[in-house]
Q: What sequence folds into this?
């Protein structure tokens, strides 16, 4: 992202014990899953509107 090769990134941390619960933590709001999915959906919508 720093070199502007990507528009958004997602970084998650999860303990090994989370295999059953799906527990995870985002390292920051900027690289969290919600931000990633929101930005990705925006890109999809923009591409869909072009065709």
A:
């Amino acid at each position: 992202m720093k070199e502007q090769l990507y528009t958004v990134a997602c970084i998650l941390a999860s303990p090994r014990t989370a295999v059953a619960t799906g527990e995870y933590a985002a390292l920051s709001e900027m690289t969290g899953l919600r931000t990633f999915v929101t930005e990705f959906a925006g890109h999809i919508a923009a591409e869909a509107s072009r065709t």
Observations:
- The radius of gyration is 14 Å.
- The chain has a mean pLDDT of 90.
- The longest strand covers residues 12-13.
- Residues 12-50 form one domain.
